[in-house]
Write a structure and sequence with these properties.
The chain has 849 residues and is mainly alpha-helical. Among the domains are: 457-541 and 574-593 and 602-622; 633-723, no CATH class; 727-840, 2-Layer Sandwich (Ribosomal Protein S8, Chain: A, domain 1), CATH 3.30.1370. Helix content is 59%, strand content 2%. The protein is built from 41 helices and four strands. It has a four-stranded mixed β-sheet. Helix 14 (284-297) packs parallel to helix 16 and helix 26 (494-506) packs antiparallel against helix 27. 48% of the residues are buried. It holds the Pfam family PPR.
């Protein structure tokens, strides 16, 4: 399986043999390439340094950026963040502040030269030939500025450095040099070369053409783009000492740096306030940058306030304003509101662009609204909006996720017919899709194909491959891919570790995931909340609930605390410095070959969860709603109120409100905490529907498990009122397929009670009444899911007339007249009314009477 990374392309001439036919200057055409950097580039550039010395600059003077080509290693690609489509699109097409004034259009010759330079690839001799051939035609500095920006957008470090070195010493004017330096600093920042950007900034400043507000602003932006916001602030504060006074451009760059670094809004907005205090009037770019700060956090309500402020100040919204707002809404789970905003744009005479639709399509895809995403794609084409690389790659990912591979490949071919070659993002989407459906031969073929085409795998590629093989139990193959990853000299960081940990957890390998968690901490790599959420969720078993009307909770066998300590201590047996990932895959492959048991139940207990929560507290990692849902799910399988209460106590380390509500409802303080519960549910409105429904499901399951069934009913009724679960809820049909077992059972009681009231008010029931449970989302037996079995046990236990529909195991039905007769029985009302077995003045043992 393991294979070496592809070699750089052979030397060839990239210049035309015949004179060129001059073309008219076309509009600037944006190109979307992966912004990842390939490992072999440094080797190719380094080996050619000697040949390149003195060639192409016509002066023989040492290159300012010559050292950039030495010792360069590929960096972790940012696509893995899960936002690569919309964020990259927004950056490529954005109206963000320009750090270098560029009022003049570039020439047609610049487009031609750019095309030939891209074809030259890593061949330094070919790059020099192109630059020399076009020297007389690229006389405007704006031509070189245009090309440098394109190299930054497309991830071409070598082309950027060669082009800059070629032109910088040919310019004698201080202003022209300042423009080039500022642009190159921005390009290096976009390429992730922050140290080289700083070196250029400092040398240019000392030489006299870099001590400008534009150079400072470019460096501030480069810092922010690479996660060095504190350095950006320090540089901003130092401007006055260099005789450069911050202005609107400087403040815009600093605010934008906060947006690119995903800094908290409360931190960034202080500089906005300072700007106002200095008497500097914000413009549209200022507000667009503030909106970008909101986008990464999904702070859609704050974004709404900023838009209102813009309107009050008479600042007109542009396409970037709307695109960023839509991105914020999508990340905040407000897809319906985003649709309305999309419709509003045209009424304000702001026309949707390809970025607008890419943002919406990506937002729908991440919310698993795949059909909606496909409809938006068709709508974009009907509007005659040209599809770009980002949109094509997004559609490839959607079709692959749906298993519609013919259409996914069709998108690839259509993209290629438009002159856009497949890139690493395209292949990553295909690899993930084929792996999702267990098509491992296609995964192998695609992985080899991309390398054969000199498309260098990035960190996301390798983590996707490892994820695919690990989930399939193919540990030897996963180990081979990891060895290939090590040979490529790509960086291991939190997202790579988290990807492997998540794969292990989904395969039930909790012990291995904890070992990797400890290993990454030892290496100085700080986990994030996603890392812990994966392990916490995997460390719990599905709750064993008894859904009949009568009976008691079924006991679950748990290990002792000593066994949990042995698990955690066992993770430290390897010596620090060992490659834990490699050793882990070797062990897993050996165990599979020997048919050994994986992780045992005894290793998945609440003591591990408590240890994980304590570790989060030590590392100052704040849990999110997904963490809380995982804790509540773990509580559902506890043996007693005391165990569940102890597990909930871990929440107090982080959030007294969540702890107060959940613990209060569990212990029977329903009336006292319901107001606080409403406030908590208000906070849930900011979440996307799947995240919010997961929290409601987990809370209801816990309450149902321990007999707090009136509280469970109140929670699901409130969730239904807030439209947490999408689906029909009427007198004729109850759709439960998005609910957990406890939530569904509580909802059945509430629904039937509502029907009971309808009957006694003199109304009739429909001819047919239906309950939908779906096919069982997590069941491997079609039509026999956990939810279906739980609802069936409940209905049968009550003696209801509901029966399974023939040919549809997820649908229960009852004739209306039979259901009415059953509901009118004197004993049924008391059967449907739910009670809490524990209240604030009583401490009873768990009961399900």
């Amino acid at each position: 399986m393991a294979s070496s990374t592809p070699t750089p392309p052979p030397n060839y001439s990239s210049l035309p043999s015949a004179p060129r036919q001059r073309r008219q200057n076309h509009h600037k055409r944006h190109r979307h390439y992966s912004n990842s950097k390939s490992a072999p580039l440094s080797a190719a550039a380094g080996s050619s340094n000697a040949a390149a010395t003195g060639r192409g600059n016509g002066s023989g003077r040492a290159s300012t950026l010559g050292s950039l080509l030495e010792g360069r290693q590929s960096r972790l690609a940012p696509e893995f963040s899960g936002r690569r489509s919309t964020r990259f699109a927004a950056k490529m097409h954005s109206g963000m502040p320009r750090v270098t004034p560029n009022k003049h259009a570039h020439s047609a010759a610049a487009d031609e030269a750019l095309s030939y330079l891209f074809n030259a690839g890593n061949n330094i001799a070919a790059i020099d030939n192109v630059l020399i051939a076009y020297e007389s035609e690229l006389w405007e500095v704006e031509d070189y500025i245009y090309m440098l920006k394109e190299f930054g957008n497309t991830g071409h470090f070598l082309l950027a450095t060669k082009c800059f070195d070629f032109i910088i010493w040919k310019q004698n004017g201080r202003i022209a040099k300042g423009k080039l330096v500022s642009t190159m600093i921005g390009t290096l920042g976009r390429l992730g070369e922050i140290n080289h950007a700083l070196r250029l900034f400092e040398s240019a400043r000392l030489e006299g053409h870099g001590n400008t507000v534009y150079s400072f602003s470019a460096m501030i932006s480069a810092y922010g783009r690479n996660g060095h916001f504190s350095d950006a602030v320090d540089l901003f504060r130092s401007m006055r000492s260099w005789g450069v006074y911050p202005n609107l451009i400087s403040y815009n760059s600093l605010i934008d740096a906060g947006a690119k670094g995903e800094v908290d809004f409360d931190v960034v907005v202080k500089f906005f306030d300072e700007m106002l205090a200095e008497g500097i009037v914000p413009d549209r770019l200022t507000y667009n940058s503030l909106l970008s700060v909101c986008a990464s956090k999904g702070m859609w309500e704050t974004a709404q306030k900023l838009l209102s402020e813009m309107d009050q100040k008479g600042i007109v919204r542009d396409a970037f304003t709307y695109n960023t707002y839509l991105d914020t809404l999508c990340k905040g789970g407000q897809i319906d509101l985003a649709r309305r905003v999309l419709e509003e744009m045209s009424s304000r005479r702001v026309w949707p662009t390809v970025v607008t639709y890419s943002t919406m399509i990506d937002g729908c895809a991440k919310a698993n609204l795949l059909e909606d995403a496909l409809n938006l794609y068709e709508e974009m084409k009907l509007r005659s909006i040209s599809v770009d690389r980002v949109s094509y790659n997004t559609m490839v990912g959607i079709y692959a996720k749906l298993g519609r591979f013919d259409e996914a490949i069709g998108q690839c071919k259509e993209m290629e017919s438009c002159g856009m070659k497949r890139d690493v993002v395209t292949y990553n989407a295909l690899l993930s899709g084929y792996g999702r459906y267990g098509m491992y031969d296609e995964v192998r073929r695609l992985f080899e194909e991309m390398k054969a085409w000199n498309i260098y795998p990035n960190t996301l590629t390798y983590s996707t491959m490892i994820d695919v093989y690990t989930k399939g139990g193919m540990f030897q193959e996963a180990m081979d891919v990891y060895k290939d990853f090590k040979k490529a000299q790509l960086e291991v960081d939190v997202v790579f570790y988290t990807s492997i940990i998540d794969s292990l957890c989904k395969n039930g390998l909790v012990e291995s995931s904890i070992m990797l968690l400890i290993a990454m901490i030892e290496k100085g790599i700080k986990p994030n909340v996603v890392t812990f959420n994966s392990i916490i969720d995997a460390s719990r078993q599905s709750p064993t609930l008894e859904y009949g009307v009568h009976g008691s909770s079924q006991a679950v066998e748990y290990p002792t605390e000593q066994l949990s300590s042995m698990l955690i201590d066992g993770a430290f047996q390897n010596k620090t410095g060992d490659d834990r990932i490699l050793k882990m895959f070797e062990q897993l492959a050996a165990e599979k070959a020997g048919h050994r048991e994986k992780d045992r139940k005894g290793r998945q207990d609440q003591h591990c969860i408590l240890w994980l929560f304590q570790k989060m507290h030590e590392l100052n990692i704040k849990p999110n709603v997904v963490t809380f849902s995982a804790i509540l799910n773990a509580c559902s399988r506890c043996n007693s109120f005391e165990d569940a209460s102890m597990l909930l106590g871990a929440l107090r380390l982080f959030d007294n409100q969540v702890y107060g509500v959940t613990h209060g409802l569990l212990m029977g303080y329903r009336e006292q905490v319901w107001f606080q519960a409403q406030t908590l549910f208000d906070e849930m409105r900011r979440m996307d529907s799947s995240t919010a429904s997961a929290f409601y499901n987990a809370l209801t399951d816990m309450l149902w498990q321990f007999g707090q069934r009136r509280g469970a009913e109140m929670v699901v009724t409130e969730g239904r009122r807030r439209n947490v679960w999408k689906g029909e809820w009427s007198i004729s049909c109850l759709d439960l397929h998005l609910m957990s077992c406890g939530a569904a059972c509580a909802m059945v009681h509430s629904w039937l009670l509502n029907m009971h009231s309808t009957l006694f008010e003199g109304s009739e029931l429909p001819k047919i009444v239906t309950i939908l449970t779906g096919w069982g989302k997590h069941s491997k037996v079609m039509g026999d899911g956990t939810l279906k079995r739980a609802v069936e046990a409940l209905l049968n236990g009550m003696g209801s007339p509901f029966r399974i529909a023939e040919g549809n195991l997820g649908r229960y039905y009852s004739p209306g007249n039979l259901l009415a007769t059953w509901l009118r029985q004197p004993s049924i009302f008391n059967l449907l009314v739910l009670y809490d077995v524990l209240n604030h003045s009583q401490a009873a043992a768990p009961s399900h009477a």
